[in-house]
């Protein structure tokens, strides 16, 4: 990857984190996330030229053994696609059954979903997922529940 590509990716990631807010509502801080055993890393945010008014935002979530994200919900305009890169992730969406997804598996969260459980299924191994959301330009994509 060229240094210009890295610069563009870093700029897009920062724009995604600040403008599109995968973490809104209740205050999200790196310190609080680390205490829960999660590390969120923005990857990119790109307006979709063929779908005016929509932006694709991508990030990774790394979970330490036993790590978890707080309960949250997604914007009414955003569909979220989650792909497990490594380890196993326990997830529960919209009050449905809790499921464990292994590396290579994915799930889709429809617009406005409530994500009650998102955590590492293991207390001994780390886990990682990629989350990709397509939502309205400028939308706060994730709001943590109180």
Automatic annotation (TrEMBL):
InterPro entries: Cupin_2, RmlC-like_jellyroll, RmlC_Cupin_sf. Residues 1-29 form the signal peptide. CDD domains: cupin_BLR7677-like (cd02234). Keywords: Signal. It comes from the Bacteria. Residues 60-132 form the Cupin type-2 domain. Pfam families: Cupin_2. The keyword Signal applies. Gene3D superfamilies: Jelly Rolls. This is Quercetin dioxygenase-like cupin family protein. The keyword Signal applies. It comes from Inquilinus ginsengisoli.
């Amino acid at each position: 990857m060229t240094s210009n590509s890295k610069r563009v990716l870093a700029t897009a990631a920062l724009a995604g984190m600040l403008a599109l807010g995968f973490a809104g509502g209740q205050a999200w801080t790196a310190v609080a996330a680390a205490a829960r055993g999660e590390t969120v890393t923005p990857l990119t945010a790109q307006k979709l030229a063929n779908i005016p008014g929509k932006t694709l935002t991508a990030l990774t979530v790394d979970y330490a053994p036993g790590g978890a994200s707080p309960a949250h919900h997604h914007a009414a305009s955003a569909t979220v696609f989650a792909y497990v890169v490594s380890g196993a992730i326990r997830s529960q969406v919209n009050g449905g059954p809790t499921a464990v997804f292994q590396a290579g598996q994915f799930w889709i969260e429809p617009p406005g979903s409530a994500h009650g459980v998102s955590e590492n299924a293991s207390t001994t191994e780390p886990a990682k997922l990629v989350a990709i959301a397509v939502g309205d330009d400028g939308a706060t994509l994730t709001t943590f529940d109180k």
